[in-house]
Design a protein that fits this description.
Order of helices and strands of chain A: HHHHHHHHHHHH
Subunit structure (chain B): PP2A consists of a common heterodimeric core enzyme, composed of a 36 kDa catalytic subunit (subunit C) and a 65 kDa constant regulatory subunit (PR65 or subunit A), that associates with a variety of regulatory subunits.
Radius of gyration of chain B: 24 Å
Helix content of chain A: 40-55%
InterPro entries (chain B): PP2A_PR55, PP2A_PR55_CS, WD40/YVTN_repeat-like_dom_sf, WD40_repeat_dom_sf, WD40_rpt
Largest sheet of chain A: none
Shape of chain A: globular
Protein name (chain A): SERTA domain-containing protein
Structural class of chain A: mainly alpha
Strand content of chain B: 35-45%
Distance between the termini of chain B: 48 Å
Number of helices of chain B: 2
Helix content of chain B: under 10%
Strand order of the largest sheet of chain B: 1-32-31-30
Largest interface: A-B, 49 and 41 residues
Oligomer: heterodimer
Number of strands of chain B: 32
Structural class of chain B: mainly beta
Number of helices of chain A: 12
GO cellular component, one term (chain A): nucleus
Largest sheet of chain B: 4 strands, antiparallel
Keywords (chain B): Repeat, WD repeat
Strand content of chain A: under 5%
């Protein structure tokens, strides 16, 4: 792959986003009628399409970076240097996209698309990961894992199928500008974004997820496979992204736990761990993970009941091992 | 990962000492192998991957640490007049398990036993001391020889079994008997619980009383005698972790000035600190950073500028930094730019995206000075390593591999073909094996003997040109 990183301003008017003959993958893959009319969606989706190869490459790099940040959640503490470098790269890309205006276009398109669509929940199969989360997250602010963002030719595809990884950044990046578009949305491989069910939302503080609107290169068959293995989120983005508020964690139903962990960086409470199949206790984000030296009680986590039961189980196991 | 099982310490075996042979090459930077492989295993277990290599200050000992938490110390054979060609082969001297895998129950995370760094203390008596560290804990090991042991105890017999006192009819005084040489390693100090993040460096001070241990965000100063206390002298952790954009990647004490230390960052800068100025050295005395070349700017610029290793020259005048593509030599008196920049593998510049994808771009290569500070060495991919002569400006690429090296053979210079026609024996960029990386190497403090770690193999090369 040759990547050229010359900066080019990308002020492509909406009307010109689709030169003749270009397959409009978004609209192709969408099959349900959408409330609000096709037009809205098509034009907004059209606006999302980046036609310059530079933008595609940049997007691909962004997606790759997000996956890397996710896969940091291992059994061993993630390498902080690597995480910081990747996060800085993501921030750089995001800054540039913001300056290009690409960012706003993308998020606007997504919010339009999502506002219009309702997810058909029955279409998708929840992974074991999701099951674990859903039990936990009844009415609580635990984010669901999102479909993985991946780029063509990237090992991400295997990752997807194996782990149903969620496309969260996990890093909070400081807001570039007050007008910076808000939440990222995880994209899928050019698939119908509507079934993700997230709102891009309101607030301009969150920059957690990245919309992958461009990685449509894979064949539809591959997409189908991935679609099935991906996780569906039936909750609105607002509920989900609410948890990504940087400074203020969503109020927890357990005030005691909340108080215990009040000094811990809250933005990582709700991070899903990709590999939850491998571990019994959900992990925190790369930075926060290392930060929580809390000497009292189990590691600070979202105060979901499932987490707690996992912790209790862990404590129980530890008691057995330690023989106390 | 499974709990490591203790391997048989005699897994190490020396390569066969071959006869002295070959014509000495005219090139001053061609190296010959003296003794080559020190492992005979054909398979590579991950635990055996060497993670650090270090000569002691006299060069008599060479220590390696591996991913399994073991330390293997080699000792140089004494030269004998009868066999001058067997000059100084390194043989296994001691093997011990330095660190064990741990589990942090609070965070539900494993703490790897991999030895990140080993640093020797200068020898002050018959015993040898080294510091070894994993991600969280530093240990001071004493390696000492025993060639005598007391025999003739009254209360226990030769096998150690307790004798029944009623059977003892006479007393004897235990005497020291000569035994086979035994080398034992004992942990004399354990310095723990001082690092929230992963330790990447340790450095012994020239005062020989203190040392620093460095993690991603902090540098701690220890007294070698005191394990329950350390002083934090550098702390770059932001109040809000979300503002974190830079981490510490390496730190080292100045070789002569006991108050001076330098630390490098993931942003490509080095800060020199004077501990006399204030207790917390968050403000630097000197700041070394080369301005970025705007023509080569890319999304990967920052990542490749991240410094993976710093080393003061033996003279203390210069500082060497290694980033992903280059090695730079800085004059401590000039902060604005390095005095020399050496391209290690610039042909990778066009492949940065692939290297980012497969994570190779995050590989941390180390760099070393030779004893006289005239040559610097660093590793690359495909088991290549590079040497740069600072005086003649010549450089050479050599390969550390079993296939290409027979004992006593002269190492052949290698070349990477960067485009156009590939000459015979050249290697194309696309055929480079990125899983074979030389991250760790060491240079004897006085002589031209180098130790190069290639995965689980240790290669020792000597230069016979004198």
């Amino acid at each position: 792959m040759r990547y050229s990183y010359q900066r080019r301003t990308c002020a492509i008017p909406r009307a010109k986003m689709f030169p003749k003959g270009t397959k409009r993958k978004f609209s192709d893959s969408r099959e349900e009628p959408v409330a609000g009319g096709e037009d809205v969606n098509q034009s907004s989706l059209a606006a999302v399409r980046m036609l310059s190869s530079y933008s595609l490459q940049r997007q691909s790099l962004l997606d790759m970076s997000l996956i890397k940040l996710q896969l940091c959640h291992m059994l061993v503490e993630p390498n902080l240097c690597r995480s910081v470098l990747i996060a800085n790269t993501v921030r750089q890309i995001q800054e540039e996209m913001t300056q290009d205006g690409t960012w706003q276009i993308m998020t606007q398109a997504l919010s339009a698309a999502n506002a219009a669509a309702q997810c058909s929940a029955d279409r998708l199969v929840a992974t074991e990961v999701l099951c674990r989360q859903t039990e936990a997250a009844q009415g609580e602010q635990v984010p669901k894992p999102f479909p993985v963002v991946g780029s063509e030719g990237c090992p991400a595809k295997e990752v997807l199928e194996e782990e149903a990884a969620a496309a969260e950044v996990g890093m909070t990046m400081s807001t570039v500008s007050p007008q910076a578009p808000t939440s990222y949305l995880p994209g899928t491989f050019g698939m119908d974004p509507c079934w993700e069910e997230e709102e891009t939302g309101e607030d301009d503080d969150d920059e957690e997820e990245e919309e992958d609107s461009e990685e449509c290169g894979s064949g539809s068959e591959g997409e189908e496979r991935e679609r099935d293995s991906l996780v569906e989120d039936t909750r609105t983005a607002e509920q989900v992204f609410g948890t990504f508020e940087i400074k203020n964690p969503a109020p927890s139903p357990d005030p005691a736990l909340e108080e215990l962990f009040s000094d811990v960086d809250a933005s990582y409470y709700d991070l899903d761990t990709v590999l939850t199949g491998m571990q019994s206790v959900p992990k925190m984000g790369p930075y926060d993970l290392l930060e929580s030296l809390s000497s009292h009680g189990p590691s600070p986590l979202s105060s979901s009941t499932s987490c707690r039961s996992d912790l209790n189980e862990l404590d129980h196991i530890m008691e057995i091992i330690v023989g106390s | 990962p499974p709990i490591l099982s203790r391997l048989n310490p005699s897994r190490w075996s020396c390569g066969p000492p071959a006869a002295e042979g070959n014509v000495q090459d005219e090139e001053s930077d061609t190296r010959k192998i003296n003794n080559s492989f020190l492992r005979d295993h054909n398979y590579a277990t991950e635990a055996d991957i060497i993670s650090t290599v270090e000569f002691n200050p006299s060069g008599e000992l060479l220590a390696t640490g591996d991913k399994g938490g073991r330390v293997v110390v080699f000792q140089r054979e004494q030269e004998t007049k009868s066999e001058p060609q067997r000059r100084g082969e390194y043989n296994v001297y001691s093997t011990f398990q330095s660190h064990d895998p741990e589990f942090d129950y609070l965070k539900s995370l494993e703490i790897e036993e991999k030895i990140n760094k080993i640093r020797w203390l200068p020898q002050q008596n018959a015993a040898y001391f080294l510091l070894s560290t994993n991600d969280k804990t530093v240990k001071l090991w004493k390696i000492s020889e025993r060639d005598r042991r007391p025999e003739g105890y009254n209360l226990k017999d030769e096998d150690g079994r307790i004798r029944d006192p009623s059977t003892i009819t006479s007393l004897r005084v235990p005497v020291l008997q000569n035994t086979d040489l035994m080398v034992e390693a004992t942990a004399r100090r354990v310095f723990s619980n001082a690092h929230t993040y992963h330790i990447n460096s340790i450095s012994v001070n020239s005062d020989l009383q203190t040392y620093i241990s460095t993690d991603d965000l902090r540098v701690n100063l220890w007294n070698l005698e005191i394990t329950d206390q350390s002083f934090n002298i550098v702390d770059i952790k932001p109040c809000n972790m979300e503002d974190l954009t830079e981490v510490i990647t390496a730190a080292e004490f100045h070789p002569q000035q006991c108050n001076t230390l330098a630390y490098s960052s993931s942003r490509g800068s080095v800060r020199l600190c004077d501990m006399r100025k204030q207790a917390l050295c968050d403000t630097h005395c000197k700041f070394f950073e080369e301005p970025e070349d705007p023509s080569t700017r890319s999304f990967f610029s920052e990542i490749i500028s991240s410094i993976s290793d710093i080393k003061f020259s033996h003279s203390g005048r210069f500082l060497m930094t290694r980033d992903y593509l280059t090695v730079k030599v800085w004059d401590l008196n000039m902060e604005t730019r390095p005095v020399q920049t050496y391209q290690v593998h610039d042909y990778l510049r066009g492949k940065l995206c692939s290297l980012y994808e497969n994570d190779c771009i995050f590989d941390k290569f180390e760099c070393v000075w030779n004893g006289s500070d005239s040559v610097i060495m660093t590793g690359s991919y495909n088991n290549f390593f590079r040497m740069f002569d600072r005086n003649t400006k010549k450089d050479v690429t050599l390969e550390a591999s079993r296939e290409n090296s027979k004992p006593r053979a002269i190492l052949k210079p290698r070349k990477v073909c960067v485009g156009g026609k590939r000459r015979k024996d050249e290697v194309t960029v696309d055929s480079l094996d990125f899983s074979k990386k030389i991250l760790h190497s060491a240079w004897h403090p006085q002589e031209n003997i180098i130790a190069v770690a290639a995965s689980n193999n240790l290669y020792i090369f000597q230069d016979k040109v004198t």
